[in-house]
Amino acid sequence: MGFFSIDTLFTIAAAIFTLGILILIHELGHFMIARMVGIRVERFSIGMPPRLLGIQNKVDGLWMKFFIPWFLQRPFNAETVEFRIPRKHPKASDTEYALSWTPFGGYVKMSGMIDESMDGETTGKPWEFSSKKRWQQLLTISGGVIMNAILAFVIFSAILYTTGMDEPVAGTSVGSMVSTEERPIFPAEAAGIQENDQIITINGQAVSEWEELTTIVQALPGQMIAVEWLRNGTRYTDSILVVKETVPTAEGTLDIGMIGIGRVLEHKELGLLESVQYGARSTYMFGTLMARGFWYMITGETSMDQVGGPVMIAQMAGEMARRGWLDIFYFMAIISVNLAFINILPIPGLDGGHFLIISIEGIIRRPLPINVKLVIQQVGMLFLLGLVLFITIQDIARL
Fold first, then answer.
1. Which of 59, 144, 316, 335 has the fewest beta carbons closer than 10 A?
2. Could you give the domains of the chain?
3. Entry pTM
4. Residue 29 pLDDT more than 80?
């Protein structure tokens, strides 16, 4: 299978689609709030430099500018090609809307802001970022994170409203047999338990509710238990070894005992209000899991080998796209939550780094020197580039 195979091209297209929308929404958040509080946006770009196409409204019409790649500038004897589209009622705009060559990224260039462009020019004009009140600056910086969280919430809610959800049915009937890549057959299936069987006792203790069953089993990893079950009026019994599995929870990872059975689920259609409530819960849950996972990585409880980067995201996006639109949008919602969390971290070069600098300036009641901000941004960008390179190398090594 070569690089230009249909499968590879499909994976790349799915990754560009997924990350493209997430980045567009993120940057749109910065753009909308900047305009709302009166900050001039000089450029709104989808993709990272170099630029491919720039569009801007001017007093004499709509101007389009194509940026010629460096290796073609000599043959064409030009760096750019511009042409004007006349308009009956042209309206000048301060913003250039750009499409850049690198699809995995995007940015909003605001007047008077010391950002990743390393532009240190501020003139004190009222439309500049640095001239706005602290709360306006903080709100503008938070715009991308807010929009990513809103996008995840909307997608989760829409999916739930469209598909409904499965709710557990009371009782101890087996609804499914659990399997994983590491353990295709769990002890319950090996002992002969099947779907629709009813578990009636564990270690001689009668169980009538699923919670009673799981409480006993989860507390006994590595131990043998006596299980009795009912099938079509016939009783069966056997000794089953409880295996230990590590599962993610809202409080972190937890080691529990499992025998490999799932409860019966009943499909339920959700109304708009219920979908919104469950959508909010899903957004909160994935945000909490991301935060705890990051904390475990910092404390060393989770290895960096488990961290994925652009290559892994591309692979997963391709896999989700093959399953269908609902799966890729669900995946997009999860990544959107992760993107919101990562961007709010107080690391220079990320939104959280800008948020921290603005907060410090608010506390000391004066702006930090421009040279200091530039150095902070440069160090932060070097750290981020190194981290992305490290994670990407890990991704490639796992291929």
1. 59
2. 11-150+344-390 (no CATH), 167-267 (2.30.42.10)
3. 0.78
4. yes
